[in-house]
Design goal:
The chain is α+β, with helices and mostly antiparallel strands. The protein contains four helices and three strands. It has a single domain, classed as Sufe protein. Chain: A.
Length: 124
């Protein structure tokens, strides 16, 4: 499988790996077809994501998607309908092959689930 330079960079040097202690939002999503699992935790201040961390079990593209997702999320509002889309993740990774585009879907699903968790915690 041929990966872009961005996928290689985020796989070889993942950013924001781990979990935030006492996060303001958390989510774990999986893709039953391939077995990839992504755990995302967020720190949110004044409705803005100030910190994001991830843990992913999966292929290099899934790990790269988790890494780039955390970078793209920081500074965004949790009040946007979808703070980060699969298209943005795919583009930031230099375009994923059709066989690996599901990893950007996994990232978007994790973001949506974490934002839902945040709003639930806020009583919204």
């Amino acid at each position: 499988m041929r990966y872009s330079d961005a996928v290689h960079d985020h796989f070889d040097n993942p950013r924001n790996i781990g979990a935030i202690e006492h996060p303001d939002a958390a989510a774990e999503v999986s893709n039953p077809a391939c077995g990839d699992i992504m755990h995302l935790t967020l720190r949110i201040v004044d409705a803005r994501i100030t910190e994001a961390k991830f843990k992913t079990m999966g292929c290099p593209a899934a790990i790269a998607a988790g890494s780039v997702t955390t970078e793209l999320l920081i500074g965004r509002s949790v009040n946007e309908p979808i703070p980060l889309t699969r298209v943005e993740v795919n583009e930031a990774l230099g375009g994923l092959s059709p066989q690996k585009v599901h990893t950007s879907v996994l990232a978007e699903d994790a973001v949506k689930a974490a934002v839902r968790d945040y709003h639930r915690r806020q009583g919204k």
